Automatic annotation (TrEMBL):
SUPFAM superfamilies: TPR-like. Belongs to the PPR family. PCMP-H subfamily. Pfam families: DYW_deaminase, E_motif, PPR. It comes from the Eukaryota. This is DYW domain-containing protein. Keywords: Repeat. InterPro entries: DYW_dom, E_motif, PPR_At4g14850-like_plant, PPR_rpt, TPR-like_helical_dom_sf. It comes from Ambrosia artemisiifolia.
Length: 727
């Protein structure tokens, strides 16, 4: 008996560690297997998600007790097999309160509260656990009034039941009732205090939560983390950092919350410092840091960290894969995107509707509007309306953006009014930003300012930044200064307002004002985001910055190509536009500066490394300057190369001296793409010839609703496969 008891303990221990083979070996070695031995090995298989093997062992048992039957029932419940569990429950020769409670718990965990309530009413006898499980079911279903009636009927209300009720009230926002019950409790444990603090946090009563936290008699890492998350979720990062520094033990969950909070607040450097200091990291840590990089525009850092994560043997979780997929979309990095797609398939995430949407976004490289296909976006909106598919706030972001990109000011104004009057969608800040951009692009700056002044909410930095960009384009210095002051109030650390205002002063020759702005930036320790461009060659990212302060290893070849291009461009009639050089220097220095802009360096390297028949794909973190746009368009003509540039705003597709996106928006009212004849034949697309380039018209149905320039057979196949699951 002594040996059997030791063996049973070892069986249970190895089962908990997932060492099923060792547990089974010990079980089989027993000469005399008692009922506890059989129950232990059955539980091992259930706990390791092998219910079929567990049932086989149960059927082999020479004798069974109620405990054995309860083990079978609970095992099915743990594996989410409710029908099998109910069959066992109904077949049991004898049931006790544990049997009834296990079945009720199964219904509660699956959200079948009605079935749980019905079974609870049939129970011949109940204990405090049964009452508490049913109470938790009502709370989980937000049926708080039923929960209260059950709570009042409970013959014994222990601290667990009372704490559950406090949490339930907090969950539905009834804080006064939660606090009343909390204050009435004679006995409170750590969970009770934490539940009340978390309730205040979840309902944005962070200061009240902090007062309660301060009088808490004992604190553990859960209570510290709950209070910390109150600050991080509300963006109060100074107080969060103060509390974080005071924590006696910084849990992984707390560190993850700080990384996300700091990242959301724009302090990416501090977020990475916390990440690097952590001795222990989980999947949430890596995904939090990757998400921070993705949201704040550090795409290359996100990819680098994802690679490090894989190199260290950490299995990517769902959030990290989605973040990296979004990065691939922003970078137009199809190779990386395909790798992430493969991992999603391997992890069985690819059938998820949200994942399918993100994949399509990646494959069509951020949709119509960013490709200059604004007319197609509007046509898609009309088609949705004709099919009686309700438009939501996200739909109108795309529609208003499309109107802005295509210069359809009147149609955009009409859509904005229809959004409110016909579709009953209340405009949010982002919709007003689209409208300000629309009016600003059209030079209607007074109307844009009037719209800002009439907004029902405060204009954010995006809106003022859009207006200021329009002021730069249309040289309205007075309004630009107003927008700059607003921007600096909202984001004093942001270099954007300084740079834009400096650009306007420089274009007007006011170099003293430019110098004053630069002095102000230095005094405020504001750093300018350096312009950089990059190109992926054989899965390696090559980064270029303006000038030659950080030369590429093959800089001499790049300079040689630039000089060669300079000669070709000069023969073709190109003249550098010195207005895009924002320093008080002579014309010769301006020409030199323009020649070494980062996008030109990247294009030169692409011409050296990318095979002739392949398009050259460049990414830039800022907008392409006007001179580079003109130069690259001409480079595509004199070299006969196809060049695609993805800047901070949109794609630019240059071929034979034309920016295809711009020219086609003005000339073709249908989807177009530079593709092969076999692709068109297979999809039934119609071919037409224009400007010595073949274009194709296809019906707006299924996957062919997505028009994309330079699209490959692979991309279209992916869209064909993915879209039917989402329509």
């Amino acid at each position: 008996t002594y040996c059997s008891n030791i063996a049973n303990i070892q069986i249970t221990r190895h089962g908990r560690l997932g060492q099923l083979d060792r547990a089974r070996e010990i079980f089989e070695s027993l000469q005399h297997k008692n009922i506890v031995s059989w129950n232990s090995i059955v539980a091992c298989y259930f706990n390791n998600n092998q219910p079929k093997e567990a049932r086989q062992l149960f059927d082999e048992m020479p004798e069974r007790t109620t405990v054995s039957w309860n083990g079978l029932l609970s095992g099915y419940v743990k594996n989410g097999m409710l029908e099998d569990a109910r069959t066992v429950f109904d077949q049991m020769p004898e049931r006790n309160v544990v049997s009834w409670t296990a079945m009720i718990r199964g219904y509660v965990e699956q959200g079948l509260v009605g079935e749980a309530e019905s079974l609870f009413g049939q129970m011949p006898e109940k204990n405090v656990v049964s009452w508490t499980v049913m109470l938790g079911g009502f709370i989980k279903a937000d049926e708080i009034d039923k929960a209260r009636r059950l709570f009042d009927a409970m013959p014994v209300k222990d601290v667990v039941a009372k704490t559950s009720m406090v949490g339930g009230y907090c969950q539905v926002g009834r804080l006064s009732e939660a606090r009343e019950l909390f204050d009435e409790m004679g006995e409170k444990n750590l969970v009770t205090w934490t539940a009340m603090i978390s309730g205040y946090v979840q309902n944005n009563r962070v200061d009240v939560a902090r007062k309660l936290f301060e009088v808490m008699p004992d604190k553990n890492e859960v209570s510290w983390t709950a209070m910390l998350m109150g600050y991080t979720q509300s963006g109060r990062m100074e107080e969060a950092m103060e509390l974080f520094n005071a924590m006696p033990y910084k849990s992984v969950v707390a560190c993850n919350a700080m990384i996300l909070g700091l990242g959301q607040n724009g302090d990416v450097g501090k977020a990475r410092w916390i990440f690097d200091q952590m001795r222990e990291k989980d999947g949430g840590t890596w995904s939090a840091m990757i998400k921070t990089y993705e949201r704040k525009g550090f795409e290359l850092e996100a990819l680098s960290l994802f690679s490090l994560m894989q190199a260290q043997g950490v299995r990517p979780n769902f959030p990290s894969l989605i973040s990296v997929l979004s990065v691939c979309s922003s970078l137009a990095s199809l190779d990386h995107g395909r790798e992430i797609h493969a991992q999603l398939v391997k992890a069985l995430f690819d059938t998820d509707v949200y994942v399918g949407s993100v994949l399509i976004t990646m494959y069509v490289k951020c949709g119509y509007a960013q490709h200059g296909l604004g007319e197609e976006a509007l046509e898609m909106f009309r088609k949705l309306c004709s099919l009686d598919i309700a438009a939501d706030d996200v739909t109108f972001i795309g529609v208003l953006s499309a109107c802005s990109y295509t210069g359809k000011i009147e149609e955009g104004l009409e859509m904005f009014e229809l959004m409110k009057s016909k579709y009953l969608v209340d405009p949010k800040t982002v919709h007003y930003a689209c409208m300000v951009d629309l009016l600003g692009r059209g030079g209607r700056l007074e109307e844009a300012m009037d719209l800002i002044n009439k907004m029902p909410m405060e204009a954010d930095a995006i809106i003022w930044g859009s207006l200021m960009g329009a002021c730069r384009t249309h040289m309205n210095l007075e309004m630009a200064e107003v927008a700059a002051k607003k921007l600096l109030q909202l984001e004093p650390w942001n270099s954007g307002p300084y740079i834009l205002l400096s650009n306007i002063y420089a274009s007007k020759g006011r170099w003293a004002a430019v110098a004053e702005l630069r002095k102000a930036m230095r005094s405020q320790d504001v750093k300018k985001t350096p312009g950089c461009s990059w190109i992926v060659i054989e899965k390696e990212v090559h980064m270029f910055r303006g000038g030659d302060s950080r030369p590429h290893p093959e800089q001499s070849l790049i300079v040689g190509m630039l000089e060669y291009l300079g000669g070709l461009l000069k023969e073709a009639g190109y003249s550098p536009d010195g207005s895009f050089v924002l320093h008080d220097v002579d014309e010769e220095e301006k020409v030199h500066s323009l020649g070494y802009h980062s996008e030109k360096l990247a294009v030169a390297y692409g011409l050296l490394k990318v095979p002739e028949r392949m398009p050259i794909r460049i990414m830039k973190n800022l907008r392409v300057c006007g001179d580079c746009h003109s130069a690259i368009k001409l480079i595509s003509q004199v070299t006969g190369r196809e060049i695609i540039v993805r800047d901070a705003n949109r794609f630019h597709h240059f071929k034979d001296g034309f920016n295809l996106h711009h020219s086609l928006n003005n000339k073709l009212p249908f989807g177009v793409g530079v593709v092969s004849d076999p692709m068109c034949a297979r999809r039934g697309w119609k071919k037409l010839q224009m400007q010595d380039v073949c274009y194709y018209h296809w019906p707006l149905s299924g996957a062919d609703q997505f028009g994309l320039f330079g699209i490959s057979e692979y991309v279209m196949d992916m869209v064909d496969q993915l879209l039917p699951h989402l329509l």
